[in-house]
Design a protein that fits this description.
- By secondary structure, the protein is mainly beta.
- The protein contains no helices and 8 strands.
- The strands form 2 sheets. It has a 6-stranded antiparallel beta sheet, with no helix packed on it.
- The two termini are about 20 Å apart.
Length: about 80
């Protein structure tokens, strides 16, 4: 049986959620939301994947869910699960 996260927070006011790691972000709106995220993220640098602590902007399309382990996320209207 799958293990689903039972807690949610709806992001608003341009405030980043940082209280606990979040594992999924769902966009229930009719448009794309640009989420600013920090966490277990790798970027390409000089042809290799490396960890980054810098915030990354990821477009979350309408109706989409983005999965990962994030220590900070902002994006008005997103629903985060933890």
């Amino acid at each position: 049986m799958a293990n689903y996260h039972k807690n949610i927070v709806v992001l608003s006011g341009g405030v980043a959620y940082t209280e606990t790691n979040t594992f999924a972000k769902y966009n229930p709106t009719s448009g794309t939301i640009n989420a600013s995220v920090k966490g277990a993220i790798k970027i390409v640098d000089s042809g290799a994947y490396v960890d980054t602590a810098a915030a990354q902007t990821i477009a979350v399309p309408s109706g989409a869910t983005m999965y990962g382990r994030f220590t900070s996320v902002s994006g008005n209207g997103l629903i985060c699960m933890y």
